């Protein structure tokens, strides 16, 4: 794959913070959270150095491959567990530092998603999982191709959906009750596009 020079194509958004003031949730976008130079460097290294895996998810009575690649990293558990997750790399730790500075929160795990092209995406879901409690704070960083991040209220269908193009180097924080009341997706697209990497920092219970 010839991806390396292509990073020049990715534009960061204009610098600015936007509070989306959604009902039943908190949603904050910071464009240009990482500048173009930092974003290009992280994009290249994460793309090539990460050991990406297929993710198989249960779907009714079958198991299907998710249309994206993933990698999960987590701080070393205090208690040794059987399945040792990968620890955060130096790059991931540096990115986390910036995220923690911004949010004044701490995170002990990060999920990386790689959307290889427009056929990759993520279907409607919210991020509640057994290990992160009912209202997890999700801190999301994007590098590479701009993809639409769409949110909809789970119960009040009259509330308009929110559509946010997440640009190279942007940061999005979902907090408060967002994950109880809203779900989100990254729709597939027929456009010819380059890969996008998304990182979601999380707090998981050990
Ligand atoms: O790629 C994104 O922006 C969102 C990823 C996501 O929703 C997830 O990993 O739970
Ligand atoms: Fe999600």
Write the layout of secondary structure elements.
Elements (H helix, E strand, L loop, with lengths): L15 E4 L6 E6 L4 H14 L3 E7 L2 E13 L15 H14 L5 E7 L6 E4 L12 E7 L2 E7 L8 E5 L3 E6 L2 H4 E5 L9 E7 L4
This protein binds 2-oxoglutaric acid and fe (ii) ion.
Fe (ii) ion binds next to loops.
Percent range for helical residues?
10-25%
Ligands and ions found: 2-oxoglutaric acid, fe (ii) ion
In CATH terms, what is the fold-level topology? Jelly Rolls
Oligomer: single chain
Using the CA coordinates, give the radius of gyration. 17 Å
Mean pLDDT reading? 91
Overall structural class, as computed from helix and strand content, comes to: alpha+beta
Could you give a short description of this structure?
The protein is α+β, with helices and mostly antiparallel strands and 206 residues long.
Please describe the structure with a list of short key phrases separated by commas or semicolons.
206 residues; alpha+beta; Jelly Rolls; four-stranded antiparallel β-sheet; globular; binds 2-oxoglutaric acid; binds fe (ii) ion
Describe the structure.
Residues 106-205 form the Fe2OG dioxygenase domain. Keywords: Dioxygenase, Oxidoreductase. GO terms for molecular function: dioxygenase activity. Pfam families: 2OG-FeII_Oxy_2 (PF13532). This is Alpha-ketoglutarate-dependent dioxygenase AlkB. The chain is of the alpha+beta class and 206 residues long. It has a single domain (5-10, 21-202), classed as Jelly Rolls, CATH 2.60.120.590. The protein contains three helices and twelve strands, in the order ββαββαββββββαββ. The strands form two sheets. It has an eight-stranded antiparallel β-sheet with strand order 1-2-10-7-12-5-4-3. A four-stranded antiparallel β-sheet has the order 6-11-8-9. It is globular and about 40 Å long. 30% of the residues are buried. The mean pLDDT is 91. Residues 111, 113, 122, 127, 140, 149, 166, 184, 186, 198, 200 line the site of 2-oxoglutaric acid.
